[in-house]
Write a structure and sequence with these properties.
about 180 residues; mainly alpha; two-stranded antiparallel sheet; elongated
């Protein structure tokens, strides 16, 4: 029996965490659904549906706003890096190669160095990194889609658990230890 249980835990290890999270969410939303049911005189199923519809709307709104802000910031970062590499970096290198800097008794004369070669080598190094930025964004989008799938799974499981529990809160946790009932 232990080997069978261990094999099942190993086989379904990716789903155990979300199921536990769904149980916790259903347990936490049980008082909210009960309050909605008592105050509005709606059935238990209707109050659970209202609670979850509101929660989905809130989560959807927050993720939409956050997604738009993140996409805008990523687009601004890519534009800034491309502009810096194509325009500003060669200009900084050419200005640096014509300047002499004095800090206290030390004099730094950069006119003797050829920064154009260094800039060209730096540009050749950064170009492949920028071309990989698209694949990084794709990996991020794939991870975000997987996360939304798991969120949907957790919400559905907790909805059905809460919907089928009825108004009986003790159906969720039924632990009886003599002498510790009030503590539990």
């Amino acid at each position: 029996m232990v080997a069978i249980i261990a094999a099942l835990v190993i086989q379904f290890r990716n789903i155990i965490g979300p199921v536990i999270l769904a149980l916790i969410l259903a347990y936490l939303l049980h008082p909210v659904a009960g309050w909605v049911s008592r105050t509005t005189k709606l059935s238990w199923h209707a109050s659970v549906a209202i609670v979850f519809i509101l929660m989905v709307l809130i989560i959807g709104g927050l993720t939409t706003v956050a997604g738009l802000a993140i996409a805008n910031q990523i687009q601004s970062l890519i534009t800034f890096v491309q502009r810096f590499i194509s325009n500003d970096l060669p200009q900084i290198a050419s200005n640096l190669s014509t300047q002499t800097y004095q800090i206290g008794p030390f004099v730094f004369d950069f006119r003797q160095y050829d920064f154009t070669q260094l800039t060209d080598q730096l540009l050749r190094t950064l170009q492949p990194l920028l071309s990989q930025a698209g694949s990084l964004i794709g990996n991020f989008a794939t991870g975000a889609a997987g996360l939304f799938g798991w969120i949907l799974f957790v919400l559905l499981v907790s909805y059905f658990l809460l919907n089928e529990s009825g108004q009986m809160a003790m159906r969720f946790v039924n632990i009886e230890i003599p002498g510790y009932g009030d503590d539990i």
